[in-house]
Amino acid sequence: MIDFNYEISKIKEKGLYRSFRYLESAQDSKTFIDGKKVILLASNNYLGLCNNEILKKSAIEAINKYGVGSGGSRLTTGSYVLHKELEKEIAKFKGTEDAILFNTGYMANIGTIASIVDSDWVIFCDRLNHASIIDGCRLSNAKLVIYKHCDVNDLMNKIKKYNREKSILITESIFSMDGDIAPLDKIVELTKKNNILTMVDEAHSTGIIGNKGKGVVDYFNLSEKIDIQVGTFSKALASEGGFVVGENSLIEYLKQKARSFIYSTALSPQTIAVSLAALRYLNENSYLIENLISKTIWFRDKLKSFGFNIIDGITPIIPIIVGDTVKTVDFSEKLLNEGIYIPAIRPPTVPKGTSRLRISLMESHTKEDLESSLNLIRKIGKKINII
Questions:
Q1: What are 29-53's pLDDT values in tens digits?
Q2: I need a surface site. Which of 73, 110, 338, 382 has the fewest CB within 10 A?
Q3: Helix 269-284 to helix 53-66 angle, to the nearest 10 degrees?
Q4: Residues annotated catalytic, as ranges
Q5: Are 56 and 28 within 8 A, CB to CB?
Q6: Pairing label, strands 143-147, 355-360
Q7: CA atoms within 13 A of residue 361's CA, in its CB half-sphere
Q8: Share of the chain above pLDDT 70, in %
């Protein structure tokens, strides 16, 4: 029998024990945690829409019309006209023929990979891809070939060595823990040249980059060259659920084969309504993206000037690399005591020796919020010898 208490004690000794922080108000630039008002620098709510009045109203209207639950899977009683409407809307937004909704981005990745790929395939996978991609690869039983993070030369060498008739490359477009952008233009050159299917996870880029937030695929003008795009509504679009967009035949295939789609109760009508409202709101208010990027570049420059070790980029995901897990947790705790919430990210979420504070900015953060946060980050960083 496994001794769970002993296993937990070992996790604590390594500085890897995780505890929950419970929010007591809306997920906004400021929120309440454990009765204390804090500046929230930890949310994927990049455009600050989680507490948007238009989105909240759309949820209420959907509840009044459709009730609060979907009542079944999409293939039984769970499909509402709202689901079909959202699938059409996200496909149009992404410039593809069709779309399919999943309950989460995690389920979209594992369902798509495991239904398309089997033991006859090779998967070329970026070393820092999200756990949902890695788990989908494992479920598929394909040969998994890991290439160095965003390293096109290493990818080229791996393709020369391992490419098969059935091969797929899978990468995030913006990496969730590093905040850097995959060199999709160069990657696609390789995949097209070598007849490799290309799948891109746009979870953290949808809503924050590209024309009106269409993502990195649009940013590189590759909409017609990417075979499978995955994304979520749960980050910049302030809702819940994942999606896959692509050709009609791909989407029809996933409806018939993706187990995480077939055997899940459908997303509730109010959730779908919020996703629709968010897409439409973004289309009419794309200036939010410009504001966010402007604040991000300024904030990054300030952290660099203080001497922090941050990964270069333009995205609102800004990791401060600390390295030591115990020191990272201490940094996070001291900031929370001062009214700034930035979580400590440790292995296995990130590689050993790269523990970090993962800052994520929101468009709704005021200059005052950010300036006071920077001052405290600098003060505590010096106090514990990070800088």
A1: 999 998 999 999 999 999 999 999 9
A2: 382
A3: 150
A4: 44, 130, 172, 176, 201, 204, 235
A5: no
A6: unpaired
A7: 29
A8: 100
